[in-house]
Design goal:
Elements lengths: L26 E5 L6 E5 L12 E5 L1 E3 L3 E6 L5 E9 L5 E7 L9 E4 L2 E8 L5 E5 L5 H8 L25 E4 L11 H9 L3 E7 L22 E5 L1 H12 L4 E4 L1 H13 L12 E5 L14 E5 L6 H10 L1 H13 L10 E4 L1
Parallel strand pairs: 1-17, 3-12, 3-14, 4-11, 14-16
Antiparallel strand pairs: 1-2, 5-6, 5-8, 6-7, 7-10, 8-9, 9-10, 12-13, 13-15, 16-17
C-alpha cells in the first residue's frame, strides 16, 4: 500500500494544545468497524458499551522526565539531551542529543551539576551517555528533568500530571499512552462494578512513535522496537474473557501492539486461543490487511496523517471507514492527537 493512502487533511487549529477540563468528558466517536456507521457522544458513554464478562486492557507505563538541559564542558555550549532507554545499567542511557555534531565519544557535559560523558555513538546518530551519579539516576530525574511533550504541542502546560494516565505505574515511557488519558479512577470503578475485568500490560513508549514513515510503500517501513510485559494475571483475564465469548477491548495502539505481539508469537487463532505471560522487545507493524489475534475492540485517539498509528486503526476498522470517520471528525471539529478526543472502534 502507498503512504498517501493514509493521508487526510487536518486544519492545525484542531490539534489540541491542552487536555479537556475533565478527563472523562472528552468527546467520543463510535465507529462500527463492520458497517462504518458513526455515532457521537462523550467519553463517559463507554460505560454503556460493556457488559459483565467483557475485559478492558490498559498500558500502565509511566512517562519519565526524559528531557534534560546540559552544558558541554569544553565550550559551555547549551545541549539538549533526550533520554530514550537505559542501557547496561541505570546510569547509562541511549540518548538523542541536540545539537549532536560535536558530541563525540569522550565529550563531557554537565547536567545541572551531574557530570556525564558520551561513551558511544550509534549508527542512528544517537549517543550512549553515562551519568556519574551515586544511586539510581531514575530517581534523580524527577528533580532535574522535564516531562517531554509531543512536537505538535507548542503551548506551556499548567499541570503536567495530565500527561500521565491515572493508573500509570512503571517508569519507562518518553511519550504517554494517550488513549488512557481519558480514564478516571471513578470511571474504572464503575466498569469494575458492572462486572468488567480490567487488566494491565506494560509497553514503554519510545520516541519512534513520532517518527514519520519515509518510505512510499508502507511495507518497506521498519518499526522501532519497544519493551513490553504481559503479566500472567492479565493473560488469565483475557483467556477467561475469550472462553466465555466476551470481548477484549484494548486501550490504545501500544496496548494493541503488545497483545497482538503475544498472540502472533504464540500462533493464536479462534480455534486455539490461550494467552500466556510474555515479555521482550516488539517491533510489530500492523497495517491492512491484518488478522487480529487477540483484540476485538479498540479505544484510541485521533492520529497523525500517514502515521503507523492510523495504519493500525485502519487494519482493524478498514481504511475507507477510518478516513471517512476522520473526515467527519474534522467537520465536527473534534480535537486531535495526544490531548484530543477519542474514538471507540467496535
Amino acid at each position: 500500500m502507498d503512504l498517501k493512502d493514509f493521508y487526510y487533511d487536518l486544519p492545525s487549529e484542531l490539534i489540541a494544545q491542552h487536555p479537556a477540563e475533565k478527563r472523562d468528558l472528552s468527546r467520543l466517536m463510535f465507529l462500527d468497524k463492520k458497517t462504518g456507521q458513526i455515532r457521537h457522544g462523550t467519553f463517559r458513554d463507554i460505560i454503556d458499551e460493556f457488559v459483565a464478562g467483557d475485559c478492558l486492557i490498559l498500558n500502565d507505563s509511566r512517562v519519565i522526565p526524559a528531557r534534560l538541559f546540559a552544558e558541554r564542558i569544553s565550550d559551555r555550549a547549551h545541549i539538549e539531551v533526550f533520554l530514550l532507554r537505559p542501557l547496561d545499567n541505570a546510569n547509562t542511557w541511549e540518548c538523542l542529543v541536540k545539537p549532536g555534531k560535536k558530541m563525540k565519544i569522550g565529550t563531557e557535559i554537565d547536567v545541572k551539576g551531574i557530570p556525564a560523558k558520551v561513551t558511544e555513538v550509534f549508527e542512528s546518530g544517537n549517543r550512549a551517555i553515562r551519568f556519574e551519579f551515586e544511586g539510581d539516576f531514575k530517581d534523580k530525574l524527577n528533580e532535574i528533568g522535564e516531562i517531554p511533550l509531543p512536537p505538535y504541542i507548542h503551548e506551556k502546560q499548567d499541570d503536567y500530571s495530565r500527561y500521565q494516565t491515572v493508573y500509570a505505574k512503571y517508569d519507562g515511557s518518553v511519550a504517554a499512552p494517550t488513549a488512557g488519558l481519558h480514564f478516571t479512577e471513578e470511571l474504572l470503578d464503575e466498569l469494575r462494578n458492572k462486572g468488567v475485568e480490567i487488566g494491565f500490560v506494560t509497553l514503554h513508549v519510545g520516541l519512534g512513535t513520532f517518527r514519520p514513515v519515509k518510505t512510499e510503500k508502507i511495507e518497506e517501513h521498519k518499526m522501532h522496537s519497544e519493551f513490553f510485559i504481559l503479566p500472567d494475571k492479565t493473560a488469565e483475564i483475557i483467556n477467561r474473557c475469550k472462553k466465555n465469548k466476551h470481548r477484549v477491548t484494548a486501550v490504545g495502539t501500544t496496548c494493541t501492539r503488545t497483545l497482538e505481539t503475544v498472540g502472533t508469537r504464540l500462533g493464536i487463532n479462534a480455534d486455539n486461543f490461550k494467552i500466556t505471560e510474555m515479555s521482550g522487545e516488539t517491533d510489530i507493524f500492523i497495517y491492512p490487511p491484518y488478522e487480529f489475534k487477540v483484540i476485538d475492540r479498540l479505544i484510541t485517539n485521533f492520529h497523525l496523517p500517514e502515521s503507523t498509528l492510523i495504519m493500525l486503526v485502519s487494519a482493524l476498522a478498514g481504511r475507507e471507514n477510518v478516513l471517512n470517520a476522520y473526515k467527519e471528525a474534522v467537520k465536527e471539529k473534534y480535537r486531535f492527537f495526544s490531548f484530543g478526543d477519542a474514538m471507540f472502534i467496535e
